[in-house]
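#help-structures
NK: newbie question, is this the right format to request a structure? protein is GIY-YIG domain-containing protein
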Amino acid sequence: MSLFKKIFKSKKEKQSKSNKDLIGGLSIKLSTDENGVSVTSSPIGTVTGSKHSDFYVYEWFIKDTGEVFYVGKGRGNRYKEYHARAYIAEEIKKLFDTGSRFVATDLTEIEAIELENETMLRILNETNHRLTNRITPLLAKRGNGYDRSPNTPTFEFEKAPVLYATEIDEHYFGKSYRKFDKVTKENLKAVMFIERSIRNEIETIYGGELGRYIDETKQLLNKLGSRVLKTQFAKSITAWIYIGDDDVKNYEIDQGKAIERLGREVPTFHLIDVWKFLKDRYGDLENPEVKKIEINPYHNRVPINEIKNFDNWEKGFDEGMPYWEDGDAERKKGNIEKAISLFDKARYYGYEAPALYNSYAMAYRKLKDYDNEIAILDEAIKRFSEGNNEIVIQKWKDRRDRSIELKIKNKL
């Protein structure tokens, strides 16, 4: 049930009654009174039901600056124990002279949870300290520093972004953003597209036409005689081509793996730079390649206009998803025909999700039924053409191209 529905459903109940919902790991409380609906944050933390009253809330801070970088709660020696899940905070403790202090002691579990929440809110709303706690209170006025540093260049149309540093990494560990490598012809022989960190802001770079830039780049790479690989650490890899951006730390981890597995680093380009490089070399594509092929799919799927709950996504999800789950379980067991029958039911009852079409495609590929695989992918591309679905659509297009190749090869 949506937040909107929860709010207005609560109006019909007793005015003193409160509702709770969990959104993105953050707890909020919805309550109604004579003034209407109010939204307040509930404390972050898991209540175990402990009856002890020796809980405390503590801070870890840097002695030279007084900057608080972690807030926690616990009992006994928790404040001075190693925190495996707070590994960024532990790294800070290795680099700086740090200390710990109690905010309050002799608390019940509920009191500790509430005070931890209040302490984090105070730090985030009243100071510029960067907390390394992964979850922040709902009503905090700023994030916890795990997003891009404010010094990261903003996205611009047809301009490559950067491999960014987070605010925490920049502030505590001295990291800075890194530009993508300059494109060279010799490093475009065997490439792989990296699809991590695709955000809505990517629309700015591609003007809402990401699919066109990917298609044109692949066609131009084909003219150059390049190969597009599926494995990031293939022995023949000559470059990674990023579609979006990424944390520079992830880039460093990947390069470390490349040195370990390949004995070398891998040049790292951005799609927009590769596109420009190839356009300068070959010019505009006058006749974009469109792969057309006659297909004759035989199936039991109902036409789209006969799908139940077509205009009620939630009901379609509730009624159709169980069939998809059962079908995918059968697919993984190797019962492909039974799986497809269940997928048909999921689709009929209105389950509309990329997962359904992915399962359909894998099932038909297993049967080497390329006509039906192409047909179901065409339907998926059409149904998800609106909205921010460029990446999943591009994957379906790539799979469709491969299915066409296999169909042609199968006829030879």
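mod (FA): yep, format's fine, and the tokens are attached above. Confidence is low (pLDDT under 50) at residues 1-41.
NK: thank you!
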